[in-house]
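Each record in this resource describes a single protein on a pair of labelled lines. The shape at a given residue is found from the number at the same position. The record below illustrates this layout:

***
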Amino acid sequence: MKNNIFSRKTLIAAGIACLLLPLHSCEKELEVTPYSYFTTANFFSNANEANMATLGVYESMSSLDSYGWNISLVFDADTDIEQMTGIGADDWRTIAHYQGISQTNMFYTVWSKLYEGIDRANVVIERIPQMELFSNGNAAQKEQLNRYLGEAKFLRGFYYSELVRLWGDVPFKTKSSQSGDNLKGGLVNRQEIYTQIIKDMTEASLVLPEQLPTDERINKWGAKAMLARVALFAGGNSLSADGTMKRPANYKDYYKLAQQQINDVMAQNPYKLNPSYAKVFKNQCQHVLEPTENIFQVAFYNPSGNIGNASWVGNFNGPATAAGFYPSNISRCLVPKPFYNSFNAADQRRDFSIATYSINNLGNKLPLLTTNQDERWTVGKWSREYQTNATAERVYTHINWVIMRYSDLLLMRAEVENELNEGPNTIAYDAINQVRKRAFGADIQGSRIAVDLKTKGSGYTNAANVLIQITGGGGTDAAAAVITLSAGGVNTIGMLRSGDGYTTVPTVTITSTDGKGTGATATARLLTKPTTTEMSLPAGLNKDNFLKAVQQERAWELSGEGMRRADLIRWGILGDKLIETSAAVKQIRSTYFFPAITNFVAGKHELYPYPQNETDVNKNITRQNPKY
């Protein structure tokens, strides 16, 4: 189980520390109340207090206002692979459907949380070097304090990178707030901010520990991996103040920086892929830390059961689940059917990432495979099936939000090598093929299965009450369901998940949950695993086609993990992908729900509007983002 940095004890400690750090007015975002004389004189007197203050910097991530909901689950929709359900005035709908305006409150809550984290980091960065122990402590004390300083620098850089990613040019401040300061900063060019972000993360990597973490704190290799991502965004497309999408003229310099950071990490080889794609997310749901796969993650732990340090991962973004055997969920994150169709059928990520079913109060899967039920398919990675289902997690879960996995870093490596070498080299192919081979279960003994109907039986009255159970065979996750009945017999069945790891044919049993019907039978068969050649990307691709392959692989591998919309923007193809997806869903059904195509405006929605709560107070923000 995870050794969470936000246990009950550390939540209290971090909370106390946060009270000692600058606090925000509810109306004046950048007007920050500075330290009291007492706090300035007496806090940071020992390493424990420095640690408490550093945890306070992390704490800004661990909120529904940041990565427990808003940034992670709402700000990544609508795209070609995920969209939000329904139409309405809720912030999480209007933002996702490209209808958010400057008065939309969720923009302000995210803006506030990110600046809160920056304010806290600024205090830690200033105060630790002033501590007596920092200069005159023993070697262990100095190393510990330098680690805290590095964490604060990394987090300040990370929070600024998110502000720039979401809003472009933003107010920029690297000094803690003191009485008499002018706290109403104007907009600063994003490339200038990137320069400081790179400096912060580079300096952080020099003092952070090399060992893999035993909790959610950042280490040296995590900082370098995240710096590589920052470099790709700094060198990518973004919406400028004149309303055009552009990348900096020296964008390849940022790709070279990313390459350097990635090479540094790979030379040490601290990470590896879990052989099972499904197990990665089951571990997350069960709070099993996996630092070899999950490079950087946000800690969630909510012992009181209230909003606090809370996450909606697995509630907001799982398959629709009725209360009963599992806790219910609200299931808002839909997956367009064309994305499902884009997978190779042997790719184990498809059936695990996309739930083509709901779950009833008995815990049974109900297929969504007829009429227009494909419009109700959802993200499946964090299903209630895999969670602890503890009382404390019935609404707000303790599931961490993983910001970067190792497969993400491998795919960045493939992209960088392709860009800098004007086409893919051996390194690029090896990186993407590692991800692909895991997706097809290359290193898992056994294979997927299919289920075939043998006898129809009789007396069945409702397909939803006919349950197909698959047991044995050494594998996991295979699931099938009855789709239709005919004259009281089972007419068709469908696979919901083909599973993995089956070494022998499992047993298939068909039962009726309402006692009506009998005699239907089915058998399973093992599916042939693809060869290494079939799993690998075709050789000989040129630069453009390899990039398209990387873009598609990132969709398959990282779907629902918070990065798709941002990736499409930095590649300059968000609008193109929305048009493409709209055309694809209309081929399925003219009424297929896909509101993004109606609302999205190119040259506008690649950035969010500056929150009006902020601009009403800070008159040094003299313009709004384009077309708002």
In short: The chain is about 40% helix and 10% strand. Confidence is low (pLDDT under 50) at residues 22-40.
